[in-house]
Amino acid sequence: MKLEKITKRLRAARKDPTARSYDDACGTAHALDLIGERWALLVMRELMFGPKRFSDLRADLPGISANVLTQRLERLEEIGALRRRKLPPPAASHVYELTPWGYEIEPALGVLGRWAARSPRHDPTLPLSAASLMLSFKTMFDASRAKGLNARIGFRIGDETFLVHIHGGACDAARQSLDGADVIFAGPATAIAAAVYGGAPLGALEAKKALAIEGDRALAERFTGLFPLPPKA
Q: Which tens digit of pLDDT belongs to each residue from 133-175?
């Protein structure tokens, strides 16, 4: 029933001369009809680790205008990929969160990220959000390099905290408290990415006050070597 309602809305939208559609039955074409507009997929990326307020999304996507963000949120809610809800008192603010179907796009984000990392035009020095960094760990993780490792690595990035759990050849990441973390990286996502993907020595980043490390130093060093980038195309 819900799918029928979405289909009817999409058909109605195609009657609007300003609406765009590939008019193609291919699932890939339909996916682009749904989330192919600029910023739509990145909005979903930012919600992969839980709900966020409008202001948080704008902060994590500094290039997007308030008007465009509003349009994308409305569109994603219309197709059933996210929902808007009001937090209970004392917060009483609205947040946006992905629906179960919205979360199902995570594997596609990983495949796209790994594919694009092979592009010679990819610039890893551009701004990077915390959510993007956490997803990259799940995407680039090399289980063979983590053999026998069972560890919890914490990250304090701005006002957010994340915990990455490496165990049994898997890499899980969640936005949660840092209780039980064996080591904690504190700093901007770009500095952490510089250590993990750019080969920047941890000591050099600490000396520049770009990064702080708390806890098991040897584990921190090992962690940075678990995510080799794929070769350029």
A: 999 999 999 999 999 999 999 999 999 999 999 999 999 999 9
Alpha helices, H only, 80-164: 100-103, 106-117, 130-140
Write the DSSP assignment of 30-61 as a string of letters: HHHHHH-STTHHHHHHHTTTS-B-HHHHHHHS
SS3 content of the chain, % helix, strand, coil (to 5): 45, 15, 40
DSSP assignment letter at 79: H
Q: pTM of the prediction?
A: 0.89
Q: What is the pLDDT of residues 85-110, one digit of tens each?
A: 998 887 778 999 999 999 999 999 99
Helix (H) / strand (E) element for 222: namely helix 217-223
Interatomic CA distance for residues 152 and 180, integer angstroms: 7
